[in-house]
Amino acid sequence: MCAPLRGMRALDDPHTIHLVLKKLPAYVTDRWKRLVDTRVYGATPSYPTFTDFVELVATEARIACGPDQPERKVVTYALLDPQSDASFVTDALCDALHPEATEVELELSTMNGRKILKCMSTSGLVVESLENGEKVDLPTLYSRQEIPADHTLIPRPETCLKWTHLHQVADKIPVPQSDADIGLLLGVNCPRIIKPREVIPGEEDDPWAVRTLLGWGIVGLISKSEPKGCFYVGSGDERKKVPRM
After folding, report:
1. Could you count the other beta carbons within 10 Å of the beta carbon of residue 167?
2. What is the domain range of residue 29?
3. How far apart are CA 91 and CA 77, in angstroms?
4. Which domain of life does the UniProt lineage start with (predicted)?
5. CA atoms within 13 A on the CB side of 66
6. What is the pLDDT of residues 209-226, one digit of tens each?
7. Is the sign of the CA dihedral 145, 156, 203, 82 positive or negative?
8. Could you give the strand order of the β-sheet that contains 198-200, starting from the edge strand earlier in sequence?
9. DSSP H helical segments within 82-229, as ranges?
10. Residue 179 placed within a domain
């Protein structure tokens, strides 16, 4: 006859689970918080059990350890740009992933004129959401030395706490990954990825929160300082054109 061990009930204690969470990656903690929120504020409020916790960790471990090509999987930030009709990848990310690539020419337009640049056209890359594990095949990407984006604009949980209307998504914004760079710029040729699924607008001049397939992000100026630059990316029909303002 089998019977549960009384002492094991201590594992259902939220404090015990919290101690274990401290040793796990931040994105696992974020997903556990979402599960807790769903259960606590659901139709029949209750805190998830240790069994629920084990099942979640087992699922995340399976996803992390079982990709198609685990040695060619990199965590990176993506800039979602609805004003761009082309998508780009950094040279550093290409070096890490080794995708199929061919050399092409880009026509770069700036305030000082236009010039022709050689770059690589890559294919076969897949993006995976750390939010829900959903995978999307990316279109052709063009390599650039860097993505023109300000790293200070990467959303942080504490950023949401500065704005009342963003408090509700503070626990849905992942903690910044110090070892992850901005490696992708995804334009309107990735509609499934950049399409807004939910928007929290706030007042007229406030920053707003947007949920896409990749999770929640913050759009707009999050401080009173003036922006240091403005960037726009596009492409032409024949030779690829990339204007930057």
Report:
1. 12
2. 9-65
3. 14
4. Eukaryota
5. 7
6. 999 998 888 888 765 554
7. positive
8. 198-200, 208-212, 215-219
9. 91-97, 157-160, 191-194
10. yes
Q: Is residue 142 part of a domain?
A: yes
Beta carbons within 8 Å of 25's beta carbon, 6+ residues apart: none
Tell me the H-state helices in the chain: 14-21, 26-40, 50-65, 91-97, 157-160, 191-194
Assess whether 222 and 151 both reside in one domain: yes
User: Which token pair is 124?
Assistant: 């076969």
Q: Which two structure tokens, joined as six digits, stand for 123? A: 């294919």
Please tell me whether residues 56 and 168 are part of one structural domain: no
The predicted-structure confidence for 5-33, as pLDDT tens digits, reads as follows 455 566 678 888 888 888 888 778 888 88
Q: Are 166 and 245 in contact (CB under 8 A)?
A: no
Q: Is residue 207 packed enough to be buried (19+ CB in 10 Å), middle (13-18) or exposed (0-12)?
A: buried
Domain presence at residue 1: no
Rounded Cα gap, residues 109 and 113, in angstroms: 6
Query: Which amino acid is present at 107?
Result: E
Spatial distance between the Cα atoms of 29 and 90, rounded to a whole number of angstroms: 29
* Residue 58 sits in the same domain as residue 78: no
3, part of any domain = no
Q: How far is the C-alpha of 219 from the C-alpha of 79, rounded, in Å?
A: 11
Spatial distance between the Cα atoms of 95 and 76, rounded to a whole number of angstroms? 13
pTM (two decimals):
0.62
Number of domains in the chain: 2
Cα–Cα distance, 234 to 9 (Å, whole number): 58
